[in-house]
Amino acid sequence: MTKIKTLEEVLTHIQDDMSIMIGGFLGTGTPEYIIDGLVDKGVKNLTIIGNDSGFENSGIGKLITNKLVKKLITSHIGTNPETGRQMNQGEMEVDLVPQGTLAERIRSAGAGLGGFLTPTGIGTLVEEGKEKITIGDKEYLLELPLKADVALLKGTKVDVKGNIYYDKAARNFNPLMAMAAELVIVEAEEIVEAGEIDPDHVMTPGIFVDIIVKEVK
Amino acid sequence: MTKIKTLEEVLTHIQDDMSIMIGGFLGTGTPEYIIDGLVDKGVKNLTIIGNDSGFENSGIGKLITNKLVKKLITSHIGTNPETGRQMNQGEMEVDLVPQGTLAERIRSAGAGLGGFLTPTGIGTLVEEGKEKITIGDKEYLLELPLKADVALLKGTKVDVKGNIYYDKAARNFNPLMAMAAELVIVEAEEIVEAGEIDPDHVMTPGIFVDIIVKEVK
Amino acid sequence: MDNNQIKNIIAKRVAKEFQNGFVVNLGIGLPTLVANYVPEEVEVILQSENGFVGMGPLAEAGKEIKDLVNAGAMPVTLVPGAAFFDSATSFAIIRGGHVDVTVLGALQVDEKGNLANWMVPGSMVPGMGGAMDLVVGAKKVIVAMTHTAKGAKKILKQCDLPLTAKEQVNLIITEMGVIEVVNRRLILREINPHFTLEEVQALTDAELIICEDLKAMEV
Amino acid sequence: MDNNQIKNIIAKRVAKEFQNGFVVNLGIGLPTLVANYVPEEVEVILQSENGFVGMGPLAEAGKEIKDLVNAGAMPVTLVPGAAFFDSATSFAIIRGGHVDVTVLGALQVDEKGNLANWMVPGSMVPGMGGAMDLVVGAKKVIVAMTHTAKGAKKILKQCDLPLTAKEQVNLIITEMGVIEVVNRRLILREINPHFTLEEVQALTDAELIICEDLKAMEV
């Protein structure tokens, strides 16, 4: 029962209107091969969750440029003017979340928590619609978990059991998203046998990963 | 400005009445050399936070056997009958916390969160004195962060900057406690130069570690 | 049946609940034996709450590896594709619903699916360890235990010991049979052919509803 | 002074706030320049919120390493003793008070220590990225910016742009001087000798309280 599939097989699992988490930070650690597949397939009305909206022709930006995104949940859109344009024109909904809160909300979903209290955003627009809770003499916002239908990850080295090793700054949101989606798909730079990644060096245990697809450049 | 100190120097930082987190899981990943030092020094009225109370002659158990502990915050005491005896005799206060909640409370403190919502403990004695919050149709307990004056860790390999690598199951609570105490001391099986641990394999960044002491058997 | 036979009957039956690829956490004691009965064609990934997945059998004497122990501090082995993590991640896995089955012992379990297994007030208080998280978080909770303890009933209308979790048990497997918890009622699905229905009910405080399709438990 | 000189005056002054062993996060743009002015005897550990500590200078052309980039996607280098982690840990470090100093730019800052730097309603909305967490979590928050923007004042009695955080700024460093936020008042601690007190106040909306021990800013 292999987890390794082709891009075509991967794409059969991704439909219009789904919510999709996409790993990466300004393109580093982002599964570009799968994103290209989504663009070719033309899946639309997507809710995309990711750190940023990349650049116009890379990362999450490619989905936006091709108008496949209905809603974007992210921390930063400054590097992609097309995101701002679609937001200002009302073509796409953008929910801006502080980066640490975004990471923690995703972790919280994966960890089975009902939410967490953070000081981030107190006294700002981020407060809107959220419960405030005071602990001791300090105010916190109650932030809720964030899940998705699918998580798309990029792994530097992936073994056949789905264990993932991310090189350097490619790790970022990937290990968090691996825990927070119904279906988890990793795009692998390299696929190796079980045991070839030292169990101490695994950054995402294979139990989280449903499908592995080899990157084709 | 080296972080490497002798056990004698380490012990000057630990006083009566302090709260101390101690890494390890039934002795695996526990800084036994420092604990022996605490026993020899006879620091007392300690509040100890750790996964379990070890065995009568190992781990946290040694502090209990020597009656140095005023209060123990832990998830499991079944392996050390002396803990149960002191608890039942009213000689030591024991606060039992579900293991996942204990880990998360420590992480929460280190991560600057005000607390988190967990389903664990709903409908049990663990509820007592805690706020219940309903999200959607599910009840959660609001659990609060747990900090300490000192964290005592055990690292398999530690570089001179304080970066720590834990071998296999020795990791457990150590990386969490590294973030949640005012003063963080690691007992190293082996001390190496900066850069000898691959930056991808560091499990506790050196920025958390104040003091390194070489284990002496 | 001696105690050893009883434990192995239970363990063998529990193992049949596992499907290929399941992530399973086995509690200390009787549940540990379940690993011995997993069919070769079924690949189960054992999670150890002290910080890894991919646990193999106990280490042979003389072949113990430092820092490679299970949650009961017994030296164990690894299977290829194992992975280590810290305790917060271990319980993120457990609480987050990423464990398919948890198998635990019990002092008491009741018809609502309540479980008590962490303390007897005034006498034995081992603490809950990871049990409260496991029972709340795992997709399926199997209680594996002897049907009675020194003659005392353990399957009750209502637990009177402090609970480990409320209404989380899905299946109870004893040497007498297999009982499913459905809508706060206990359905007897399988019975050990060595016992009659009357004998099983007599040693069970809660009312057992006999499944229309009652099967013989393989022993 | 041209724009480049101004930026370097500011960056040079910011660097003096660092002590040996400090963990520092430098924002994108002007704050990045601060790294060039840290004295050799002061060892500062640079945190990059995309997931590591121990960041070194920008990578030389042709020596870029894949996946080794800063939070602005620029190829960088590492110093010995660096360590990588995921984004949840990165912000645990930031929010948890483990960063000694964060240096950021601002659109506006006010006498209460309020900071606005993430959006101009109706026009520019880059998003807050990691700024809201950094400003709330770091032990010391330094705003490093030009004193005015195209003639418009940026140091105000009250920010009118949406805030990044409430009352978190500790120090404001511009080409005109060094201003500390103390109890919702602005204390001018150093002044660039090229300007008079009157000139600085004229370009500052909030009232500046002149420190008794006012010093000349080294430029």
Relative strand content of chain A: 25-35%
CATH level 3 topology of chain A: Glutaconate Coenzyme A-transferase
Q: Segments of chain C where pLDDT lies below 50 for 5+ residues?
A: none
Strand order, largest beta sheet of chain C: 4-3-2-1-5-8-12-13-14-15
Largest interface: A-D, 47 and 42 residues
Overall geometric form of chain C:
globular
Radius of gyration of chain C: 17 Å
- Strand/helix succession of chain A: EHEHEHEHEHEEEEEHEE
Assigned CATH class of chain C: Alpha Beta
Describe this structure in words.
The complex is a heterotetramer, with 2 copies of chain A (217 residues) and 2 copies of chain C (219 residues). Chain A contains 6 helices and 12 strands. With 217 residues, chain A is α/β, with parallel strands linked by helices. Chain A has one domain (7-114, 146-214): Glutaconate Coenzyme A-transferase (3-Layer(aba) Sandwich). Chain A starts with a strand and ends with a strand. Chain C is globular, with a radius of gyration of 17 Å. With 219 residues, chain C is an alpha/beta fold. Chain C has a single domain (3-216), classed as 3-Layer(aba) Sandwich (Glutaconate Coenzyme A-transferase). In chain C, a hairpin with a 2-residue loop joins β13 and β14. Chain C starts with a helix and ends with a strand. In chain C, α3 (87-95) runs parallel beside α4 (131-137). Chains in contact: A-B, A-C, A-D, B-C, B-D. The A-D interface holds A 25-29, 51-52, 74-79, 84, 87-88, 96, 98-101, 103-104, 106-107, 118-126, 156, 166-176, 203 and D 48-52, 65-69, 71-73, 84-88, 90-91, 94-95, 114, 122, 124-133, 136-137, 162-167. β6 of chain A pairs antiparallel with β6 (115-118) of chain B.
